[in-house]
Design brief:
The chain is an alpha+beta fold and 601 residues long. The protein has 5 domains: 175 residues, P-loop containing nucleotide triphosphate hydrolases (Rossmann fold, 3-Layer(aba) Sandwich); 97 residues, Elongation Factor Tu (Ef-tu), domain 3 (Beta Barrel), CATH 2.40.30; 72 residues, Alpha-Beta Plaits (2-Layer Sandwich), CATH 3.30.70; 92 residues, Alpha-Beta Plaits (2-Layer Sandwich), CATH 3.30.70.240; 111 residues, Alpha-Beta Plaits (2-Layer Sandwich), CATH 3.30.70. The protein has 14 helices and 32 strands. The strands form 6 sheets. The protein has an 8-stranded antiparallel β-sheet. Helix 12 runs antiparallel to helix 14. The longest helix has 21 residues.
């Protein structure tokens, strides 16, 4: 059994690409947890192929290290805004955080967001300036920036190079000195917080836990309190970073429990693993769970279809398997006229959507079609108090029954060099944003705070922000609330027929521009037929944009040779009547490419 005063549980938080995973590698190397010759690749804790290729962390990853008689439990976390729910989970299992700032780039938007998360938990913070070996590193200026923004004295900042290992031993000593040992309760009643759960094809569901009180060993019967499921523990152990079985887990320790379950949803993140005091008979229904996490809610929705309709069962199985490892992914079946059967999926953001798409295509060899992302809206019906949440425009009730529609708003923080402030302000104005605050980090950089509708930032906001700021601006956003807005459903009619899959929910002020753009695009894409095709964008019965595709015209007069003009007119009149009749019965077959081009706006 470990002495609890010798345990330190901590995580590394930072903006994307500031060197968290490289620092984790150096800590593993310095503490002798992994031999240098076993370091097969950089970023040892980024185990997914996609993480190594993109150079980003997607899943949190725990590891246990031994150093000078101390036990150090590190949880490596993602830096991207879409995976901040992974960061919040890591933080709940720790007592301290290493805040990494790139000495060349300084504080970024996500640095601030992650720091606020840590401060909410009254964490001890060790500020670290990384990449001091680079020629453009400005240690003095960045240290002043950290002092000004976070109020942390410059003397407390550790300057390191995670790549070369400079000063990493000094950082290890600081971790031991500054971070408090965990507050574990040696009690007969056991409680452990699940901060992640993964599916292992050999072991079944493995729950990553932080023990708060009591202890747990192989053979114990434990209950997951939120789902009221009781299981027998098959194995307990530590992360080294591979699974290392042990006899028993004690309070304050971070480890894993092999549950033997087949569904990750039964070992929910944030749930409490509970075992009663053997001397006291307590009903599991009356046991008090540990404070967990808020349930992760997806904000961005898109539909996924297979290019080959026969692959639908494969897509269903692949999504089910992905959900075992990704608690934030949600999906439900959907059918669209031209694209066949697919799924309406919910994501935390655009990077999350991109990662899911790439994993489906790579790991399950599927060719996919993904529609343009949209957000979920809320609708209050006339005379009713219940609020409907819709992620699919085709489910929007008739507008005569709607009292009000609400859309999600987010708080956006943009960190940018001061010369780009005007351009950023203009972009936010275009997107219906409200400017809230402006604060200078130093004489060169500014933090701008805005409130924006989520729908305005899911499509191209980030790309345009990077373009306006020559790539220097960074942003972070968090959900605020739903607000009443003048939203309408815009339908697309082709040859008088409503095409359900092309309907979108949009703000009334933006409807004309979007309608005009979609009808123009369709005009280029739909092949000509023997009769004229009208393409219309409509709100209710009001047409707001129209384009026409002219009919293909056969030269019916080609076989005439001389003679009276009336013979020619007679043939043309006959052709006109034929086209009119054809228009009455003719249907426009839309090729799949048309749907793709329009849906991927």
């Amino acid at each position: 059994m470990s002495d609890i005063s010798l345990i330190r549980n901590f995580c590394i938080i930072a903006h994307i690409d500031h060197g968290k995973s490289t620092l984790a590698d150096r800590l593993l190397e310095q503490t002798g947890t992994i031999d240098k010759r076993d370091m097969k690749h950089a970023q040892m804790l980024d185990t997914m192929e996609l993480e190594q290729e993109r150079g980003i962390t997607i899943k949190l990853q725990p590891v246990r290290m031994n150093w000078n008689g101390y036990i150090l439990n590190l949880i490596d976390t993602p830096g991207h805004v879409d995976f901040s729910y992974e960061v919040s989970r890591s933080i709940a299992a720790c007592e301290g955080a290493i805040l990494v700032v790139d000495a060349t780039q300084g504080i970024e938007a996500q640095t601030l967001a992650n720091l606020y998360l840590a401060l909410e938990h009254n964490f001890a913070i060790i500020p670290v300036l990384n990449k001091i070996d680079l020629p453009n590193a400005d240690v003095e200026r960045r240290a002043n920036e950290i002092e000004a923004v976070f109020g942390i004295p410059k003397e407390e900042i550790v300057s390191i190079s995670a790549k070369n290992g400079t000063n990493v031993d000094m950082l290890l000593q600081r971790i031991v000195d500054k971070f408090p040992p965990p507050r574990g309760i040696f009690d007969k009643e056991t409680k452990a917080l699940i901060f992640d759960s993964v599916y292992d094809s050999y072991k079944g569901v493995v729950a990553y836990v932080r023990l708060m009180q009591g202890s747990v060993a192989r053979g114990d019967r434990v209950t997951f309190l939120s789902v009221q499921r009781t299981i027998e523990v098959l194995e307990v152990g530590y992360f080294k970073p591979q699974y290392l079985p042990t006899e028993r887990l004690y309070p304050g320790e971070v480890g894993y429990i092999v549950t033997g379950l087949k569904e990750v949803s039964e070992a929910r993140v944030g749930d409490t693993v509970w075992r009663p005091d053997p001397e006291m008979k307590i009903d599991p229904m009356k046991a008090i769970p540990l404070p967990g996490y808020r349930q992760v809610k997806p904000f961005v929705f898109a539909s996924i279809f297979c290019v080959d309709g026969d692959n639908y069962p494969l897509l269903r199985d692949a999504l089910n398997k992905l959900r075992l490892n990704d608690a934030a992914l949600s999906f439900e079946p959907e059918t669209a006229g031209a694209l066949g059967h697919g799924f309406r999926c919910g994501f935390l953001g655009l990077l999350h959507m991109e990662i899911v798409q790439e994993r489906l295509e790579r790991e399950y060899d599927l060719s996919l079609v993904i529609t343009a992302p949209s957000v979920s809206y809320q609708v209050v019906l006339t005379g009713e108090t219940e609020v409907l949440t819709l992620s699919n425009p085709s489910l929007l009730p008739d507008r005569t029954k709607i009292e009000k529609t609400l859309e999600p708003w987010v708080k956006v923080e943009v960190l940018t060099p001061k010369e780009y402030v005007g351009g950023v302000m203009q972009l936010v104005q275009e997107k219906r944003g409200i400017s809230k605050n402006m604060q200078y980090l130093d004489e060169m950089r500014v933090i701008l705070a805005f409130e924006l509708p989520l729908a305005s930032i899911v499509l191209d906001f980030y790309d345009r922000l990077k373009t306006i700021s020559s790539g220097y601006a960074s942003m972070n956003y968090e959900f605020l609330n739903y607000r009443a807005s003048d939203l309408v459903k815009m339908d697309i009619l082709i040859a008088g027929e409503l095409v359900d899959s092309l309907s979108i929910i949009i703000h009334r002020d933006e409807a004309y521009r979007a309608g005009s753009s979609i009808t123009k695009k369709l005009k280029e894409l739909i092949p000509k037929t023997m009769f004229e095709i009208a393409i219309q964008a409509a709100i209710g019965s009001k047409i707001i944009a129209r384009e026409s595709i002219s009919a293909m015209r056969k030269d019916v007069t080609a076989k005439l040779y001389g003679g009276d003009r009336t013979r020619k007119d007679k043939l043309l009149k006959k052709q006109k009547a034929g086209k009119k009749r054809m228009k009455m019965v003719g249907r426009v077959e839309l090729p799949q490419e048309v749907f793709l081009a329009v849906l991927q706006r």
